[in-house]
Amino acid sequence: MRADLITRITVCLRPFRAAGPRIEVERIGDKRVVHNYGHGGSGWSLSWGSSTIARDKAMAGGTREVAVIGCGALGLTSALLLQRAGARVTIYASERLSDTRSARATGSWSPDSRIADAARVSPDFPALWEQMARTSYAAHQTYVGQVGEPVSWRDLYLLRDKDEVERPDPPNAIDFIRLDDRLRDLVPRSHALTPDQHPFPVDEARRGTSMTFNVAELAHRLTTDFLLEGGHIETMTFHSPTDLSRLSQPVVVNCTGYGARALWNDQTITPVRGQIAWLPPQPEVRYSLSYRGVGVVPRPDGIVVQSYGDSEMFGYGIDHETPDRAEAEAAIATIAPLFARARNLP
Ligand SMILES: Cc1cc2nc3c(=O)[nH]c(=O)nc-3n(C[C@H](O)[C@H](O)[C@H](O)COP(=O)(O)OP(=O)(O)OC[C@H]3O[C@@H](n4cnc5c(N)ncnc54)[C@H](O)[C@@H]3O)c2cc1C
Description:
Elements: E1 8-17, E2 25-28, E3 31-35, H1 43-59, E4 65-69, H2 73-84, E5 88-93, H3 125-141, E6 151-160, E7 191-193, E8 204-213, H4 215-228, E9 232-235, E10 251-254, H5 260-263, E11 269-279, E12 287-291, E13 294-299, E14 302-307, H6 325-340
Parallel strand pairs: 3-10, 4-5, 4-10, 5-9, 6-12
Antiparallel strand pairs: 1-11, 2-3, 6-8, 7-8, 11-14, 12-13, 13-14
The protein binds flavin-adenine dinucleotide (FAD).
Residues 12-14, 37, 39-45, 69-75, 93-95, 100-102, 105-108, 110, 237-238, 255-259, 263, 274, 276 line the site of flavin-adenine dinucleotide.
């Protein structure tokens, strides 16, 4: 685990909305627009569930001709679900999935990561979130065990030293809502390990099991499935909602992610910057870990090393996507000692 092995550094902006994702219908001219954006750090995790709700809203009027704007995690899952419900679907987007922000995600099941502000959500949000999370969880399971491992289960080591102090959140910090307790019956739990049960030179270790998205394979799979099942994708950029009049379809599902801030002038979207340092893939490494604010996720397309900082406010309000080499090297320096001194690592 060395900084001179970094193959690339990618940056992405989480589209955070204090009230949670926008999944609602709006009329623009002669179009019914179903919004499906603003999923913070949970877009892949909640994709199928959120898009199921968007699909039902889109199909409610009986229309069979649907346009989807956006080709990220939300756009492709919406398009596939609409198509499988009998609609003829065209995706219009500036970028295909491999160039979207979705392609720069960590690839972990994280359904309540920066999904909303506890103080700003409506009373029915927790139940809606649970519905989205359970639907998504079930859909993701159907990809486990497939060639290319689009979705897999990995051991996750949660590592801690006794000298780590929890820093108080900065003043005016968002109270990011925590909802994972609602899924206690669904998601495997972590267990404390004794020192002889793990190889890491740390004071405390827990082992859990984490659902991991091989984003490169998943992107390819979703795109291929959509096209094979009769869908079309066109490159098109929209500059304002009135541009929708260019489309022939009466129903439009808007999955523009962070792009909705500019396109829909939705100032309730706040960027939360996140960066990944990529190391070459090591197929023999099959576990994720988290240590001193750094996460490591081994994927077939590379080993993801990401700084989480000391709170979920890390990156909040920052909208630049310029790679920061010093941040990447610091993240690797934090975890390198784990491997230098680890005993009998697989
Ligand atoms: C560092 C980082 C790590 C993350 N890790 C995870 C994780 O492990 N698990 C998880 O669940 N989530 C994770 N996320 C969050 C996740 O990446 C996002 O929630 C998700 O990518 C949002 O997907 P989307 O489809 O809404 O938007 P995008 O992926 O941004 O796609 C938007 C689409 O809309 C198109 N578009 C936008 N504007 C226009 C326009 N004006 N005209 C035409 N087309 C337009 C774009 O071209 C693109 O095709 C992470 C985010 C970051 C930043």
